[in-house]
Fold Methionine ABC transporter substrate-binding protein.
Amino acid sequence: MKLGRITTTAIAGLFAATALVACGSDSDGTSTTTQDGDGATIRIGTTDAAKEAWTVFEEKAAEEGITLDVVNFSDYSTPNDALAQDQLDVNLFQHLKFLAAYNVGSGEDLTPVGSSEIVPLALFWKDHDSIDGIEGEQVAIPNDESNQGRAINVLVQADLVTLKTPGMITPTPADIDEEASKVSVLPVDAAQAPTAYHEGTPAIINNSFLDRAGIDPNLAVFEDDPNSEEAEPYINVFVTKAEDADDENIARLVELWHDADVQAAVDRDSKGTSVAVNRPADELQAILDRLEAADE
């Protein structure tokens, strides 16, 4: 989500959605994009409305005759519920792994219709510019369900950790072959990973915590490969209800997100860490199907 991640149990707070989206919903709760004499109005949910990219995105949509009714959420548990309850037409805030957990946990069939970008997850080690000499160190990793597995796979890609069963999508510390690994892991609350870093412990830090901790994202000593199969679950996506997957206006929004001006704003927002991903809907659905099967 640019997602500083969320567990499936966070879905329990879902009914707060009504209050959050009331200003952006039609009174009758219809879910299809609205057409009028001036063009289409699309209700889109996000957790990042304050970012520059969203301002540029709205401007580009307006040039195409599409009015964006942007609904901002303060948490990650409600945008999908708002979509499922017909209070939104589309949302853009989550990656495929989170969507899979939501669909499996809720019984919904929300559908990815386009991709936006992926933010690599990175390893930081104070006063070091590479992983040379890291053998034997303990690495702090986020302990939440969504980030922990990805963090371990970052260490797998860095050839620092070996799994008992190679290729796991969401490994846990128990899945690590400690004898064959070069480092050990220390699960901590994601918000505490920067503290560990500042104290000299190598740490995998979520992108959303870097700014708050005053850590330059370009100081990473290793990050996962956004083009690898292991990174596919973390592609951020535009999501609709299944029956709206062929909406032409929403398809146009996906295209507009990849406009050069929008992408330049995304780059500024992320300080150069975001990597644009433009995968077709059928490929995204195939990845989602695989993730949902693993979560069932």
Q: What stands out?
A: Residues 8-118+234-295 form a domain with the D-Maltodextrin-Binding Protein; domain 2 fold (CATH 3.40.190.10).
